[in-house]
TrEMBL record:
SUPFAM superfamilies, per the entry: Glu-tRNAGln amidotransferase C subunit
Catalysed reactions listed for this entry: L-glutamyl-tRNA(Gln) + L-glutamine + ATP + H2O = L-glutaminyl-tRNA(Gln) + L-glutamate + ADP + phosphate + H(+); L-aspartyl-tRNA(Asn) + L-glutamine + ATP + H2O = L-asparaginyl-tRNA(Asn) + L-glutamate + ADP + phosphate + 2 H(+)
Organism: Jhaorihella thermophila
Keywords, sorted A to Z: ATP-binding, Ligase, Nucleotide-binding, Protein biosynthesis, Transferase
The name this protein goes by in its record: Aspartyl/glutamyl-tRNA(Asn/Gln) amidotransferase subunit C
An annotated Gene Ontology molecular function: ATP binding
Length: 95
């Protein structure tokens, strides 16, 4: 698949990336190469191949899904320029 310069410029704009006009041909070529590689990967037969989490067979570690506050309030607030009553203190921005 080939990406033209207009499409590359549109993608850059949507990604909020500033790209100079002289860099658009290289960006379009890079996008095209990425899409060509994806098309090449789609040709690989993966029927019957189990998904892997690692190159070595291992089971993922699991923990209980429990909500905690991390017990690090003092440590986190020690980095704040201004903290009061256990919270970050910020300047008032609304009149």
């Amino acid at each position: 698949m080939s990406i033209d310069e207009n499409t590359a410029a549109k993608v850059a704009k949507l990604a909020r990336i500033k790209v100079e006009g002289d860099a658009l041909p290289a960006l379009a070529a890079e996008f095209s190469a990425i899409l060509d590689f994806i098309e090449q990967l789609e040709e690989v037969d993966v029927e019957g191949v189990e998904p892997m989490t690692s190159v070595t067979p291992m089971r993922l570690k699991r923990r209980k899904d429990v909500v905690t506050d991390g017990n690090m309030q003092d440590k986190i607030l020690s980095n704040a320029p201004d903290a009061r009553e256990g919270f970050f203190a910020v300047p008032k921005v609304v009149e």
